[in-house]
Specification:
The model has no long low-confidence stretch (mean pLDDT about 85). Helix content is about 85%, strand content about 0%. By secondary structure, it is mainly α. The protein contains 10 helices and no strands.
Amino acid sequence: MKQACKADLPALIFLFALLLLWQAGATGMGAAYILPSPTQILVRLWELRIPLFTVHLPATMTVTAIGLAISLVLGLALAAAMDSSDLVRRMLYPVVVVSQTIPTTAIAPLFVLWFGYGIWSKVLVTVLITFFPIAITVYDGLRAANVEMTELLRTYGANRWQIVRAVKIPCALPYFFSAVKMAVPMSVIGAAIGEWLGAKSGLGYFSRRMMTQLDGAGVFAPIVLLSAAAMLAVGVVALLERKLVRWRGES
């Protein structure tokens, strides 16, 4: 715990210095609708706390949770399929990569056109953004399994599932948590992008609405909540990783 606090201290000092620079720059500019100061954003966040915390934050977190869950299932299935067969890998890998070349802001309006302003258009944007790091990173983890150990288990008569359980899953577990820590912020971003381009609620929708009112602090207030939610979720994943992947050690 003490080591973690010491490791976090430089980051906190750097963040505090950035906030001071931001505060000074925004105060000197004197145009809150363009660049509000951190204190103005916090004040506006407090003023808007009821709609933000009771309506828009739950809407965004629901989209994020559903999209991330689907991405986990899809990413793990693709990783396992590509690891199981070279033929499957040659078929799927290029498709997975090509899916990431599609501009999200270009296809998200099509999702809204196809599925309306309900939750599923935003979920699809989130899945499109987040399944890729999970699939590719977990696949790399499965491929990184110790070849000698795998061959040794085969000589002892172990079947494929026993090899996967004893060698591949423990090897891929750190990769899995790394992928989730990448996917969590991306899922929040995906949900916000989907809401920004077409929604009736959510932090992305609320930020866009504040922009039409030239409320700079109101635009940043939902962004602060998005960042806080993403950091909290990543912290929970990191805690689970330390509990479940003990052999990796503290970084």
